[in-house]
């Protein structure tokens, strides 16, 4: 009655006293027990009385003979196992199996080996199960021994002891002296069976599982420490080693013989197989370990080779094998969450593809230029001109193509990431980084992107739905995001936007504004400040023009002949006006470019009156502002009447042309037109003297007025494509056109890729503005910190400017030097590291 | 293998039979093992155990204790069972023997 009195050490004495009277003869009692044990082992227990055996064991223990009983039982089991059971098992062991190594295997065919192995496993399993059952019964009968004697003396229980005996007698004893033990044989047989299973042969999984179960039930020592299971200590080690060998070889031969996709599928299959194998044949505890082995051998060590195979990742990307890529991704994700090999491979592929796009773009933009250079060598200037004009077009096309290709590249890899890499963070980050690298290694990236937007604004968005426009804008922003030198982009964008606005080339101002608001979100307020100011100027100018018109009306000077004026007043700081000058300077002889041209243009009186009128009007409204006329950017609508041809009416045409072209045409208006004599004419020199249009612009405008077939208002003498000094022009009376409205195109008015010279200038300007930005940043930082070591100043400057561009350290150093010279900063002489102080 | 009955018979060394509920008797691990149908001993087959070292007086008290225990399994503050003083030692030994 345990509730009242727990069984304990101190109580046993009482019981002994109580039993003193009953005499117990140990040998006799043991004989009874031994007989019964034999019956149990031969499965004949039904005639035995549990109570009797229990009572006998109880008595022996009470008589303090527990130790002797314990030893007798152990001895009994040892003899039983060592002689009867082992003999049975060895009988089932065919000769080849005993060798427990490769030679044994070589001697028999696979089927023979499998059957012999199964037979052995079966007999071992039988012996083990019998032993378990019998020992279970024995333990039950000897419960009192376990409870009192084993606990008091800290002996392993009878059951544990007998398991140890099984291990020692059956598994650890050599089959014959000098030969392998049954455990070794067992291990090699199981491994052999597993190898067969891997080769696809059907094996008896259940029997293997039973044997593994046995190994799991046995321990290295009688103490039964959990992680010293025989299975873990002996079998699993061998299993993992042999598996590693197997997969290493298999991996190598697969890499040699098959393609990457197959390899991946195979590896995945193997991993799943091993999982299943652990469940059905081995122990769940091994699942993790064998997975690791397979992953190590088939993936981690082979990943590099796999990715670099002919049919590796590059091949998959090229042929859109998303499923295979997904497999590669899965495999690598298994072994390393960072997936270094795959990301490296992807980056390499992107770099390669990107570089080839870049190279294509460079080649496309250079090839015709070279061709034209070759033409120039032929001394045929005319051809060269045409060639270079074509070259510029071709470059623009190359720019557009480059952007499209970069976008396509990005789309493609986005798709790959989504489909194959489950939008994995690591991979997509690295892909993005590579995209940025690709875009930033391309020197003309900023210009090309801006051109792309320009092209879309002018033509691309025509007849497109809002959704499509949105998509286009998104695309542009996407690339823009990668761009490192955002300030360069800003310069180009400003320039292109300026031309779009002034020449009214933009399809929709709404879209322009959307684009800018997107940039604002993406790149910040300061980036779009000037762009927005440009729009503001445009709106203000419209109001101004209307205001001026009303003003003129109110003057009461309603002269139908009066020239109407539309004006755009632009803030000089915001608008990249030099872009226009630069474009017109491009081919000039050099002496022209130094002189500001706009002021020198001579307007005819009718026009000049309007100009002065507006200047008065403007300075009334805003005192202290100076207007500079940019006549090279304007355009004019003329109404021209041509004399009647034979039998016809006089024809009137609305002509839209540049301001310069208007000036030239007006000159011919004033010429006396004599019906009978030869048409009055003007030479190039005369035209220039009367208008003071820069030579270069003059040449271009004359070309469109006298050479272009649709708008030949003037007749040129001698008739040729090129305008040379000494050419003479006259009014073309015989001009005919079926259209009422005629637009005079001016050569190269649109936005194109810059020429080399232009680019150099842009770069120079850019460097200058970067210099200012750097100085401003340095001063800002120093103003705040007062004193700062050199290195820290550098890093802070870099971080401040990183949103706009990546300044190089040399430039920063130079700027600091110059700030010191100008006494904004001074060096600290006593500082341990180079440092500066801000001088207020 | 014998079918598992609800009641088992316990017999004392002076041949008194006590039929008790199996669940009550199985409070003792020793009895439980003896009656376990998995073990192939005689007791399990016949659902009968003969105790050679208890007389009827002791076995009766043991059976009483089985029921007492079963009844008060989940209760708290249960009054101690009444035990005749002259049987105390023998009951103590029986408790040790049956491990309960």
UniProtKB/TrEMBL annotation, chain A:
Superkingdom of origin organism: Eukaryota
InterPro entries according to UniProt: Cullin, Cullin-like_AB, Cullin_homology, Cullin_homology_sf, Cullin_N, Cullin_neddylation_domain, Cullin_repeat-like_dom_sf, WH-like_DNA-bd_sf
A GO molecular-function annotation: ubiquitin protein ligase binding
Signal peptide: none
Gene Ontology annotations of biological process type: ubiquitin-dependent protein catabolic process
Pfam family, one: Cullin_AB
Coiled-coil portions: none
Segments of this protein annotated with the region Disordered: 368-388
UniProtKB keywords: Isopeptide bond, Ubl conjugation
Domain spans labelled Cullin family profile: 444-706
Family the UniProt entry places it in: Belongs to the cullin family.
PANTHER family, A to Z: CULLIN
Protein name: Cullin family profile domain-containing protein
From TrEMBL, chain B:
Keywords: Nucleus
Localization of this protein: Nucleus
InterPro entries with a match to the protein in the record: ELC1, SKP1-like, SKP1/BTB/POZ_sf, Skp1_comp_POZ
Protein name: Elongin-C
Biological function: Essential component of the SCF (SKP1-CUL1-F-box protein) E3 ubiquitin ligase complexes, which mediate the ubiquitination and subsequent proteasomal degradation of target proteins. Controls sulfur metabolite repression, probably by mediating the inactivation or degradation of the metR transcription factor.
Keyword Ligase: no
GO cellular component terms listed in the entry, alphabetical order: nucleus
Highest taxon of the lineage: Eukaryota
Pfam family, one: Skp1_POZ
Record GO biological process: ubiquitin-dependent protein catabolic process
Alphabetized PANTHER family for the sequence: ELONGIN-C
Domain SKP1 component POZ: 7-69
Record family assignment: Belongs to the SKP1 family.
């Amino acid at each position: 009655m345990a509730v009242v009195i727990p069984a304990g050490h101190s109580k046993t004495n009482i019981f002994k006293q109580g039993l003193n009277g009953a005499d117990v003869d140990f040998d006799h009692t043991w004989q009874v027990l031994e007989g019964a044990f034999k019956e149990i082992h031969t499965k004949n227990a039904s005639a035995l009385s549990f109570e009797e055996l229990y009572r006998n064991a109880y008595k022996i223990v009470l008589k303090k003979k527990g130790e002797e009983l314990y030893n007798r039982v152990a001895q009994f089991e040892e003899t039983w196992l060592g002689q009867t059971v082992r003999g049975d098992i060895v009988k089932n062991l065919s000769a080849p199996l005993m060798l427990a190594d490769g030679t044994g295997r070589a001697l028999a065919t696979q089927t023979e080996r499998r059957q012999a192995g199964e037979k052995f496993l079966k007999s071992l399993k039988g012996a083990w199960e019998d032993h378990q059952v019998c020992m279970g019964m024995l333990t039950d009968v000897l419960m009192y021994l376990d409870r009192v004697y084993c606990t008091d003396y800290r002996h392993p229980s009878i059951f544990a002891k007998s398991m140890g005996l099984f291990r020692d007698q059956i598994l650890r004893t050599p089959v014959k002296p000098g030969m392998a033990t049954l455990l070794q044989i067992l291990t090699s047989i199981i491994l052999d069976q597993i190898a067969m299973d891997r080769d696809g042969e059907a094996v008896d999984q259940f029997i293997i599982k039973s044997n593994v179960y046995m190994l799991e039930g046995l321990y290295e020592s009688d103490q039964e420490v959990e992680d010293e299971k025989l299975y873990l200590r002996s079998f699993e080690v061998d299993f993992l080693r042999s598996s590693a060998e197997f997969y290493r070889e298999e991996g190598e031969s697969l890499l040699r013989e098959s393609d990457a996709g197959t390899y991946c599928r195979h590896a995945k299959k193997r991993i799943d197989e091993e999982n299943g194998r652990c469940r059905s044949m081995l122990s769940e505890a091994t699942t993790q370990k064998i997975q690791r082995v397979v992953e190590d051998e088939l993936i981690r060590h082979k990943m590099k080779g796999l990715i670099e195979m002919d049919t590796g990742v590059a091949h998959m990307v090229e042929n859109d094998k998303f499923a295979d890529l997904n497999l590669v991704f899965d495999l690598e994700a298994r072994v390393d969450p960072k997936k270094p090999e795959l990301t490296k491979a992807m980056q390499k592929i992107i770099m390669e593809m990107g570089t080839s796009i870049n190279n294509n773009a460079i080649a496309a933009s250079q090839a015709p230029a070279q061709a034209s250079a070759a033409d120039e060598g032929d001394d045929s200037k005319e051809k060269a001109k045409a060639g270079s004009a074509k070259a510029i077009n071709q470059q623009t096309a190359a720019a557009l193509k480059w952007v499209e290709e970069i976008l396509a590249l990005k789309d493609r890899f986005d798709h790959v990431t989504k489909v194959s890499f489950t939008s994995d963070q690591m991979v997509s980050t690295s892909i993005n980084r590579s995209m940025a690298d690709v875009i930033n290694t391309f020197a003309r990236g900023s210009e090309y992107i801006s051109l792309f937007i320009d092209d879309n604004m002018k033509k691309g968005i025509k007849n497109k739905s809002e959704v499509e426009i949105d998509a286009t804008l998104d695309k542009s922003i996407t690339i823009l995001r990668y761009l490192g030198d955002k300030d360069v982009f800003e310069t180009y964008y400003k320039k292109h936007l300026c031309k779009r606005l002034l020449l009214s080339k933009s399809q929709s101002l709404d879209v322009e504004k959307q684009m800018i608001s997107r940039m604002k979100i993406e790149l910040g307020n300061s980036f779009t400040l000037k762009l927005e100011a440009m729009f503001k100027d445009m709106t203000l100018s419209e109001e101004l023009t209307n205001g001026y018109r009303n003003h003129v009306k109110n003057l009461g000077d309603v002269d139908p002949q009066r020239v109407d004026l539309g004006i755009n007043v632009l803030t000089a700081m915001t608008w990249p006006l030099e872009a226009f000058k630069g474009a017109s300077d491009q081919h000039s002889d050099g002496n022209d470019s130094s002189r500001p041209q706009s002021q020198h243009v001579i307007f005819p009186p009718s026009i000049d009156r309007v100009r002065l009128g507006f200047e008065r009007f403007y300075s009334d409204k805003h005192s202290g502002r100076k207007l500079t006329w940019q006549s090279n950017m304007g355009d004019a609508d003329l109404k021209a009447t041509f004399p009647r041809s034979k039998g016809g009416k006089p024809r009137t045409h609305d002509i839209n042309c540049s301001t310069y072209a208007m000036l030239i045409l007006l000159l011919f208006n004033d010429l006396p037109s004599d019906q009978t004599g030869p048409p009055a004419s003007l030479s190039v020199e005369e035209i220039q003297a009367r208008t003071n249009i820069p030579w270069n612009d003059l040449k271009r405008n004359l070309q469109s007025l006298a050479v272009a077939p649709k708008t030949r208002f003037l007749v040129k003498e001698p008739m040729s494509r090129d305008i040379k000094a000494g050419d003479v022009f006259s009014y073309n009376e015989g001009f005919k056109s079926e259209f009422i409205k005629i637009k005079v195109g001016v050569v190269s008015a649109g936005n194109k890729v810059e020429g080399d010279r232009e680019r150099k200038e842009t770069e120079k300007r850019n460097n200058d503005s970067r210099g200012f930005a750097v100085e401003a940043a340095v001063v800002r930082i120093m103003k705040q910190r007062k004193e700062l070591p050199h290195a820290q100043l550098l890093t802070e400057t870099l971080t401040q400017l990183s949103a706009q561009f990546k300044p190089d350290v040399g430039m920063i150093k130079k700027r600091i030097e110059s700030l010191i010279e100008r006494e904004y900063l001074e060096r600290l002489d006593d500082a341990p590291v180079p440092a500066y102080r801000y001088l207020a | 293998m014998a079918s598992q009955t609800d009641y088992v018979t316990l017999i004392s060394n002076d041949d008194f039979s006590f039929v008790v509920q199996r669940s009550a008797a199985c409070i003792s691990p020793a009895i439980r093992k003896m009656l376990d149908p998995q073990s192939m001993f005689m007791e399990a087959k016949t659902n009968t155990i003969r105790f050679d070292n208890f007389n009827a007086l002791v076995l009766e008290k043991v059976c009483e204790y089985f029921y007492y225990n079963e009844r008060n399994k989940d209760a708290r503050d249960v009054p101690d069972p009444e035990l005749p003083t002259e049987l105390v030692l023998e009951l103590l030994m029986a408790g040790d023997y049956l491990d309960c």
